[in-house]
Design a protein that fits this description.
Layout: E1 6-13, H1 18-35, E2 45-50, E3 71-78, H2 83-99, E4 108-115
Parallel strand pairs: 1-2, 3-4
Antiparallel strand pairs: 1-3
Length: 131
């Protein structure tokens, strides 16, 4: 059995259209399927919109110019991927989101949180992948 799960939290500035939110979610899911081999239907995504006071970020950290279109992605995954797969995921997300909904690559911030396989419960109060 392979442990390929993911869950994504997407944070955006308040006022985004439903189409834009869906495009971001679809892009993240597609990139996960392509680079992390996430199974079909393993789609668990939350989207939060934040007002000006609740969406704080550096516009220049690491010499990257960001604007109000910034999208912050926190993706929780099983700790089964290597560095090359992670690099491929980051690049593919940035590429897909630049195509649709037209984000600048500079405005795609990604953070991976890795967990061991027994830290997942997909329902029924059961740790489905615990040995």
């Amino acid at each position: 059995m392979r442990y390929l799960q993911s869950a994504s939290c997407i944070s955006l500035k308040q006022g985004q259209s439903a189409a834009r939110r869906k495009a971001v979610a679809d892009g993240v899911y597609t990139a996960l399927r392509e680079t992390f081999n996430v199974p079909e239907e393993d789609r668990f995504i939350t989207i939060g919109e934040h007002d000006e006071d609740g969406f704080l970020f550096s516009r220049t950290y690491m010499n990257i110019e960001r604007n109000d279109d910034l999208v912050i992605l926190q993706i929780t995954v099983s700790n089964t991927r290597n560095v090359e797969q992670k690099k491929a995921l980051f690049a593919r997300i940035a590429e897909l989101l630049s195509q649709n909904p037209g984000l600048r690559r500079e405005d795609v911030f990604i953070n991976l949180v890795e967990v061991v396989k027994e830290n997942w419960s997909f329902g029924n109060g059961i740790a489905q992948y615990a040995d």
